[in-house]
Amino acid sequence: MNIKSLLLGSAAALIAVSGARAADAVVVAEPEPAEYVKICDVYGAGYFYIPGTETCLRIGGYIRYDAGVGDVGSFDGVNNVPDHQDGDSQDTFYKNARFTLRTWTGQETELGTLKTFTETRFNFGNSSGDYLNQAASNANDWQGRNKSLSLRYAWIQLGGLRVGKDDTAFDTFIGYAGSVIQDTLVPYGGQESNVVQYYFDAGNGFSAVVSLEEGAGAVGTIDSYVPHVVGGVKYKGDWGAVTGVVAYDSNYEEVAGKVRLDVNVSKEFSLFVMGGYGTDDNLTDNAGNAIDASGRGFYKQWGGNWAIWGGGTYKFNEKTAFNAQVSYDDWKNLGVAANVAYTVVPGFTVTAEVDYLNAGKFGDADFNNWTKANKKSSLGGILRFQRSF
């Protein structure tokens, strides 16, 4: 082998090695498979798995716009508004725009289903104002403004145990009143509270609840380590349901209860009737300090000892429903509400409602100026646009 052959052979070997290394350098690793969001159909429509977990999440809510007129309840014509040119008092609309964000989660565990629910509300609009009385706390409420942010619900539930912020079981377990917007012309319960609850499902349509509650507001929030207590039982069938709840108000050591009958007359027509009774021996003990001059408390929100609510829904077709409710209490407060709800397209509903209130004792914020002989009649209405998602 001569020098020339040796040099040619070495060069060929180097080229082969270099070519192999160059080929190795351009090899690209296989990409990791993408982890797409997966649908979770265990808890109903709208849930999906949070990537990398066994938790199912649903995000929803609604956008709502209300326009109200008149002087009924919370949908007041905003009275005593100053005219911008001459300052004279005049009436105008009640307006409110709301964005509500809701979240639901669900996950199966060895101790049962772990669930959460939250609802946060953002509002812009006005309320009933008393411009002529500048000393009043609501003197400027007629002005359009961003209202306070509201955490409406925030609870955790494992199996039958629920803790967090919810409406009182005095309302949620037995059900709110009718499907009208203004269902509290005669009020029926305390609503918002921190709660510790346990739900029992006995099967065959029977269920029960026990709830320890904090209450809310100056009158309703507990003033010691003793909680308010609510208990309820229910039987539900294809025909409807029978429910009863009892509440102990630890602040005043008073008891209130409600019973309700729901009947599905047909696929299109449903009716309900609900009666309430509550004691009030101690509810006016602090009236001189204006703590509870109304004589009501957290649970027995209606006037006097007893009250009754009744109403129903008739569905004309898939898009249109008529809802009505009548309520009356021991203080001769009479409330009538009726509306027509029309679903323009799925998820978008327009509701037009008329409300009437004939108020007896304490029919005004100034309780001391009212007696059982006084009456105050008022009429109002509201138009609501709501997009739910």
TrEMBL record:
GO terms for biological process: monoatomic ion transport. Pfam families: Porin_2. InterPro entries: Porin_alphabac (IPR003684). Residues 1-22 form the signal peptide. It is a multi-pass membrane protein. It is found in: Cell outer membrane. Belongs to the alphaproteobacteria porin family. Forms passive diffusion pores that allow small molecular weight hydrophilic materials across the outer membrane. Consists of 16-stranded beta-barrel sheets, with large surface-exposed loops, that form a transmembrane pore at the center of each barrel. The pore is partially ocluded by a peptide loop that folds into the pore lumen. This is Porin. It comes from Mesorhizobium neociceri.
